[in-house]
């Protein structure tokens, strides 16, 4: 009976206006995708020519879309995103992720403040460390700006904004690092500075604490060279802006423990990222793929 009910439908002229608006929205949101428009066409057919005609159109449209390249690609993306959480030598050992209750971030620049934003949006308390008061205030201001942008777009209420912001604590020293479960270092790409930081972290953090670096270029073994904690040193490479971009590279060395990888995969999921586990090599995965792109572009420029 419900198939023939029309009492919830707008008059035809009004319905067509609504569908016209929906088409414009679909084009704006996904300019190169055909199937959202096909869905709207099917709905229109049901309204204009009756429910049976709508169902016939749906069956035919589905059949043709099923064999399109877009369908194959979307299925590929769907399964490959889920395959990222299966990592031989880490996730197949029956390990359970440990509870991460407090995160420290070193550096409140563009990257550090973005990572902090991603963390507090998923209710992780964050300790943000900087070298002086001026840099610390600038880092907290960046976090505020990231959150305010969400409020402006209607993605966040004022109340939620206040709650998120209350999760950030500033620090200029390492005193409070004894209660931290995960540290993410996000300072400039300077080997000596990073080595010094990791030697300090080993001193001040509890023995279970994961020591992560956001480096995109430096060998992790080099970063952890002056420590005895190589089994808990790992890469957590975010992409800028860190609170928006969905990818997180988890970089493991030959020393990184499987438990640390499992823990970071769990954190990655909780902060709504797609975590991929990669090896400790030049450029890791993303920049390694990016190098040949840049090289070929420059080669074409050379060829005029």
TrEMBL record:
Keywords for the protein's UniProt record, in alphabetical order: Isomerase, Lyase, Membrane, Multifunctional enzyme, Oxidoreductase, Transmembrane, Transmembrane helix
Identification of the protein by name: 3-hydroxyacyl-CoA dehydrogenase NAD binding domain-containing protein
Superkingdom per UniProt: Eukaryota
A UniProt-annotated Pfam family: 3HCDH_N
GO CC annotation terms, alphabetical: peroxisome
SUPFAM superfamilies named among the record's database cross-references: NAD(P)-binding Rossmann-fold domains (SSF51735)
PANTHER family: 3-HYDROXYACYL-COA DEHYROGENASE (PTHR23309), PEROXISOMAL FATTY ACID BETA-OXIDATION MULTIFUNCTIONAL PROTEIN MFP2 (PTHR23309:SF9)
UniProt-listed InterPro entries: 3-OHacyl-CoA_DH_CS, 3-OHacyl-CoA_DH_NAD-bd, NAD(P)-bd_dom_sf
Family the UniProt entry places it in: In the central section; belongs to the 3-hydroxyacyl-CoA dehydrogenase family.
Keyword Membrane: yes
Membrane-spanning residues: 103-124
Record domain 3-hydroxyacyl-CoA dehydrogenase NAD binding: where: 102-280
GO molecular function terms attached to this record: (3S)-3-hydroxyacyl-CoA dehydrogenase (NAD+) activity; isomerase activity; lyase activity; NAD+ binding
Pathway(s) where this gene product acts: Lipid metabolism; fatty acid beta-oxidation
Gene Ontology process terms (BP): fatty acid beta-oxidation
PROSITE patterns in the cross-refs: 3HCDH (PS00067)
